Amino acid sequence: MNEQTLIRFENVTLGYEGMPVIEGLDFSIEKGQYLCVLGQNGSGKSTMMKSLLGFLSPMAGKIERAPYLKKNAIGYLPQQQPGQADFPASVKEVVLSGCQGKRRFMPFYTKADKALAEKNIELMKITHLKDRSFKELSGGQKQRALLARALCAAEDLILLDEPTAGLDPVVTEELYGLIDDLNKKEGMAVIMISHDPEKAMQYATHILHLGRRMLYFGATEEYDREAVLAKEREV
């Protein structure tokens, strides 16, 4: 891997209990890229995300990571869960909890942790909400807070699993704008699972389209969705 490569998949097969879910993953994630992952339900998107996080080892092939990019150095925003709605903490406390992976055995948050949390709260434009109870926030505000939390763990890379699911169009557009700013202005590499190909093609620099195999990986401007869908039907 070169110094710009964050993660490299080399002919990877992923699955569970000896049964493959997705085969033929062969691509690299570079610093500063914005990758959208497309594909039907069951195509292996979430399985691949688990492998990116280090929770699932390949059945075949190899996954390489930049030496400093350990599991606790990747920001992760999972799909919204019903239990998140009643989380009994302030926005500031929720965001700060994203620093836990970096604290190791330290019992208290450091000044640097608190400064990082404040920075990410400001990036997500929720400074006016930081002392509010998380459970009182709207869906879009919760996602901003959770994204700020994920950024506290991130070293060059953040993973997003359908971050706009269930949000109205205005809030969805706002969140996409914030993620785009993270990529373009802050230099954060983004990997997003999405069911919105139009938004993916509007914002992403690269597309990964999965079927039972990797059907396409490359620059967004070279992605021929109709051709890839036809290929998907043949697989």
Brief account:
This protein has helices at 45-52, 91-96, 100-103, 111-123, 139-153, 169-184, 197-203, 225-234, and strands spanning 5-16, 19-30, 34-38, 60-65, 75-77, 157-161, 189-193, 206-210, 214-219. With 235 residues, it is an alpha/beta fold.
How far is it from the N-terminal to the C-terminal residue, by CA?
31 Å
SSE ordering? EEEHEEHHHHEHEHEEH
Q: Which overall shape is indicated by the principal axes computed on the Cα atoms?
A: globular
The side-by-side strand order for the widest beta sheet comes to 5-6-7-3-8-9
Number of strands: 9
Question: Could you tell me the mean pLDDT?
Answer: 90
Count of alpha/pi helices = 8
Q: Tell me the structural class.
A: alpha/beta
The helix content, as a percent range, equals 25-40%
Rg, Cα atoms, Å? 18 Å
Q: Oligomerization state of this entry? A: single chain
Could you give a short account of the major beta sheet? 6 strands, mixed
Unreliable parts? none
Measured by DSSP, the beta-strand proportion falls in 25-35%
